[in-house]
Amino acid sequence: MLPKPKKHWTPSHWASWKPFGIGEQYPNNYWEVFRAIWLSRHKLPYAWNILNKGVCDGCALGTTGMKDWTVDGIHVCNVRLRLLQMNTMPAFDPAILADVSALQTKKSAELRELGRLPYPMIRQSGEKGFRRVNWDEALEAIASRIRATTPDRLSFYITSRGTVNETYYATQKAVRAMGTNNIDNAARICHSPSTAGLKGAIGAAATTCSYKDWIGTDLLVFIGSNVANNQPVTVKYLHNAKKAGTRIVVINTYREPGMERYWVPSIPESALFGTKFAEDFFLVNMGGDMAFLNGTIKHMIANGWVDESFINRYTAGFDELKAFLETQSWEKLEQLSGAKRDEMYAFAKMVGEANKAVFVWSMGITQHECGEDNVRAIINLALTKGFVGREGCGLMPIRGHSGVQGGAEMGCYATVFPGGKPIIPENAAQLSKLWGFDVPVTKGLIAPEMIHAASEGQLDVLFSVGGNFLEVLPEPDYVEDALKRVPMRVHMDIVLSSQMLVEPTDTVVLLPATTRYEIPGGVTETSTERRVIFSPEIPGPRIGEARPEWEVFMELARRVRPELADKLAFVDTAGMRQEIAQVVLQYAGIQHLKEAGDQFQYSGSHLCFGWNFPTADGKAHFAVVSRGERELPEGSFLVATRRGKQFNSMVQERKDAITGAVREAVFINEVDAKHFGLNDGDVVILTNELGNLKGKVYTAPIKPGNLQVHWPEGNVLLDKSKRSREGVPDYNAVVRLEKVD
């Protein structure tokens, strides 16, 4: 059993003796509460019910109302409070879309603040803006275009922001009934390398443990992950972990302030004096994680800190990894990682001395050309001590969106069917028999490939639910040009986005969507820890003619394939959950979720429990991974893109409350700044062969030779051709820095 958090106050954990961190830089969460109340003041009872009864549509921690299954107390973070406005704001007057020229100059944040999209709208080539149409006219326009082309020239994309399992499932079924596997979701550009890496190594493609395993484990390691910013409720878990004696370590390019200390507003001790989280930071080069982890394992082998009994009985491939590491010199590992041999030793000693450990990672690991290998390097380290399949141990690719875990599992993916089954004839035949229509057997286009096909004139219809290709993919000018080449674009969302306003080649259709809280019958989401949670419909105001996405896709498919009408209908979401339980076997139990608070954790609290690995040989597999040498031209920097006061690409504030940096900040080490004669606030330009970005110097504790800029602003520097094996864009680049006089 894991140690419990100590109840007495612990001054050695305090971030500051100054009451309430006066003068320190950190989010004013109390102000966020008052701000949310003010912005929702006209619908306060509805807003309260959303918070108190609905499942959070923010990150993938998965609270039900304002409680969870990890620690007691009330949980509501500033991200959720910011999203609350979108769930309670009124509709805009559709007349504002009659001429979009003025709107095209606005930022996405300004477009969101206009209000909810209330009615279907259509704009055709040569028109200044959109006109209102009824649902029948809108859907028939889309269906007729689909019927007039071939399935290979169709593409469908669904974001994961607030999207629920039922929407994912119905959408992928409808799209496959229309004859194509060209459907993808936001998981593609986030954690698809994690899914592939875990599946290949241990046979299980999801987080192996629970959040409770953070609290009381010996060692909790965050690699390329900043949960204080992106999953703010976890700071309560980190506080409790510290109180239970857990050692917290961060491996990253930048010493994230929120991972170092935080003032947790709902815990009196922390609200008053703050909490110090990470005891140790290991700073590595952008992309240097693999070399650092290889060096760590090399030390562990040399010092006898690996669990040979576990390795011999339950794993394969360790001898090959060991032999490879013997060929890697310390000089090469230091060069690639940016860390010293002694630093790798210090971390290896921590891992070697730990009896239990949990490894958490995010976009800093996956969004590289070598994303899959980065993940396998983490798994390699965990397997040296058997840190999987038991209490206080685990591998956790932490999710940033409330809907993203269920997306691929429901089959809303170009490369797998529901349940993660590969797209092969046998699996297609099974689905065909169950659904009553032929299911395509050819893998579909993943999200970046959809834009490439559009650019090449190979798409006739692009249907995007939520999301914004202009702000999530590299080379935004290229993306915009590609969107202009698609004869029919359909955008379904609750608010306006900049991609909706891109000039039409022929026709652009806007469709108004409901939020998860407005869907009749209630819905479910799946959290990072594989917990499937029921979110009830919240009675309250409704917006114009907004409809649930799942209903729209079912009707569209019936219009395209009228002969399948009886096979493309669900009475309600409860009926859909009955089918999901049959098709996605690990979700058996979802059919019983009916009321607020209903939930279950599929496959239990730990995957691979007792070291039973669902691989072909029943063993976990080490992998030989290494990144090639990278020579930086003189005066060049490695640059990574980062989030800051935003929810994915949805910028929520100009200034990041944790770092104090504004959107145009270029994070740079003080030594590098001095070398270039730069001071805070100086204007610089970052350039490479793809574009340039003007910003302002912000000196920060970042690894020398590395820079960070905010995303999506930094997308102009990224190369669309650089992607991981699973298709994740590489959100990093090499740039030159010049001072602007």
UniProtKB/TrEMBL annotation:
<dbReference type="InterPro" id="IPR041953">
    <property type="entry name" value="YdeP_MopB"/>
</dbReference>
<feature type="domain" description="Molybdopterin oxidoreductase">
    <location>
        <begin position="116"/>
        <end position="558"/>
    </location>
</feature>
<keyword id="KW-0411">Iron-sulfur</keyword>
<dbReference type="InterPro" id="IPR009010">
    <property type="entry name" value="Asp_de-COase-like_dom_sf"/>
</dbReference>
<dbReference type="GO" id="GO:0043546">
    <property type="term" value="F:molybdopterin cofactor binding"/>
</dbReference>
<dbReference type="Pfam" id="PF01568">
    <property type="entry name" value="Molydop_binding"/>
</dbReference>
<dbReference type="GO" id="GO:0030151">
    <property type="term" value="F:molybdenum ion binding"/>
</dbReference>
<keyword id="KW-0479">Metal-binding</keyword>
<feature type="domain" description="Molybdopterin dinucleotide-binding">
    <location>
        <begin position="638"/>
        <end position="732"/>
    </location>
</feature>
<dbReference type="Pfam" id="PF00384">
    <property type="entry name" value="Molybdopterin"/>
</dbReference>
<dbReference type="InterPro" id="IPR010046">
    <property type="entry name" value="Mopterin_OxRdtse_a_bac"/>
</dbReference>
<keyword id="KW-0408">Iron</keyword>
<protein>
    <submittedName>
        <fullName>Formate dehydrogenase</fullName>
    </submittedName>
</protein>
<dbReference type="GO" id="GO:0016020">
    <property type="term" value="C:membrane"/>
</dbReference>
<dbReference type="InterPro" id="IPR006657">
    <property type="entry name" value="MoPterin_dinucl-bd_dom"/>
</dbReference>
<dbReference type="InterPro" id="IPR006656">
    <property type="entry name" value="Mopterin_OxRdtase"/>
</dbReference>
<dbReference type="InterPro" id="IPR050123">
    <property type="entry name" value="Prok_molybdopt-oxidoreductase"/>
</dbReference>
<dbReference type="GO" id="GO:0008863">
    <property type="term" value="F:formate dehydrogenase (NAD+) activity"/>
</dbReference>
<dbReference type="GO" id="GO:0051539">
    <property type="term" value="F:4 iron, 4 sulfur cluster binding"/>
</dbReference>
